[in-house]
Amino acid sequence: MFASAVSIWEIGLKMSKGKLRIPENFPTLLEQNGIELLSFTAIHAMASTLLPSIHGDPFDRALIAQCRLESMTLATRDGGMDQYGIAILKV
Question: Which among 12, 32, 10 is positioned nearest to 21, based on CA atoms?
């Protein structure tokens, strides 16, 4: 199981706006619980800009690009992401 740097970034932004409370060492806690951290690379960034304009959220587009390039399954509640031809685990 992996946690994308994109998700950590988005969670951190929500935390900074007071919308979410998590420990500052959240990434470390993930790793301690067997979840690998997945870096967001320049290749992922470029791939996210080349996706069809089905979904407008840049964080979601970044996750979609990562899943496509890394052949991963995306765990999400967002129903619009399945239009990109990636494996989805509905949560």
Answer: 12
